[in-house]
Write a structure and sequence with these properties.
It contains 16 helices and eight strands. By secondary structure, it is an alpha/beta fold. The protein binds phosphoenolpyruvate and magnesium ion. Magnesium ion binds next to helix 11. Belongs to the PEP-utilizing enzyme family. Keywords: Cytoplasm, Kinase, Magnesium, Metal-binding, Phosphotransferase system, Sugar transport, Transferase, Transport. It is found in: Cytoplasm.
Length: about 325
């Protein structure tokens, strides 16, 4: 695998028509960060901070969190890192946070997880905010909140960070030179109020793993449903298209950080509907950079526009045929 990474490391993801696409990678552990250099990814578009919580027998204390975040920033060097606050609960249960509320959930994926849990266990979010702010002292900090369903949740989470930043400032501690806040769009409800949240964000990252599960009401962890709904279905693509168009005019970056973006035809479709930032599994970075170089955005945009207006009977077959015709 390392040899494959290396061969594509220096491929610059410019499309055939000359647009630079941002190809970033997802990570969750300190060791994952070495893939940044190996793959030549543009940065870490999703750092899943809950991994540290999931592999620990006890709640990771603030100092331990801070050490990890600092190591990750050091290893990333000039490349940006987007830290997502913990997404625990749901399918990512941690024994030391077990509570009656978590234990009796019938639908944990739609339950008390991610930002919902962080906002109630405020001590948890405060500690994470302090750890991130201290780790990024003198550098840029990108913070992303998971499972934002309504704008107030974003505001409340950001306020926790700002209170911690004020505290550090009052102690004359060095702060990050810039703090950028973003949200994940993985709960469909947020898409209906985009214009309310967009002005408050620096970036929006679409989490297609959870989004698909909620759009189709299909448990992402249930193997019986794994093959049932296609990421290339008109329902998903139209939804993603609407989201991309919904933020036009706001000075925010929009991207996709779900697994969808790491697959060839899916990435092609995403580029065709206007996404220019993908954060994907490290093994996909090289292949997707290579794909990008073969694409003319005007051509794929025109095809997607037609197919979204009037979906072909099999979108996957249509995209496969199109890719073959265009030597992609
Ligand atoms: C997603 O839901 O698409 C996502 C990127 O986050 P996770 O897979 O960690 O839930
Ligand atoms: Mg998710």
């Amino acid at each position: 695998r390392q040899a494959t990474y290396a061969a594509l490391r220096d491929v610059e993801p410019f499309t055939r028509c000359g647009t630079r696409i941002n190809v970033m990678m997802n990570a969750g552990l300190r060791d994952d960060v070495s893939a940044l250099q190996l793959t030549g990814a543009d940065g870490i578009g999703l750092f899943r901070t809950e991994f540290q919580f999931l592999v620990s027998a006890t709640l990771p204390q603030r100092e331990r969190q801070q050490r990890l975040y600092r190591d990750v920033l050091d290893a990333a060097g000039d490349k940006p890192v987007v830290f997502r606050t913990v997404d625990i609960g749901g399918d990512k249960a941690v024994p030391y946070l077990s509570s009656e509320a978590l234990d009796r959930e019938e639908n944990p994926a739609m339950g008390w997880r991610a930002l919902r849990l962080s906002l109630e266990r405020e001590g948890l979010l405060k500690a994470q905010a302090r750890a991130l702010l201290e780790a990024a002292a003198g550098r840029r900090l990108n913070v992303m909140f998971p499972m934002v369903s309504e704008p107030w949740e974003f505001d409340a989470a950001k306020a926790v960070f700002e209170t911690q930043a004020d505290f550090l400032r009052s102690r004359r501690k060095l702060l990050p030179e810039e703090i950028r806040y973003g949200a994940m769009l993985e709960v469909p409800a947020l898409a209906e109020v985009l214009e309310l949240i967009a002005p408050r964000l620096s970036f929006l990252s679409v989490g297609t793993n959870d989004l698909t599960q909620f759009l189709f009401a299909a448990d992402r962890a249930n193997p019986k449903l794994a093959e049932r709904y296609d990421w290339l279905s008109p329902a998903i693509l139209r939804f993603l298209d609407r989201v991309a168009r919904g933020v036009v005019g706001y000075p925010i970056e929009i991207g996709v950080c779900g697994e969808m973006g790491g697959r060839r035809l899916e990435a092609l479709a995403l580029l065709g509907i206007g996404y220019r930032r993908l954060s994907i599994t490290p093994a996909s970075v090289g292949p997707i950079k290579e794909l990008v170089r073969k694409i003319d955005l005007a051509e794929i945009s025109a095809a997607m526009k037609e197919w979204l207006a009037s979906p072909p009977p099999d979108m996957r077959a249509a995209l496969t045929g199109w890719a073959q015709e265009h030597d992609i």
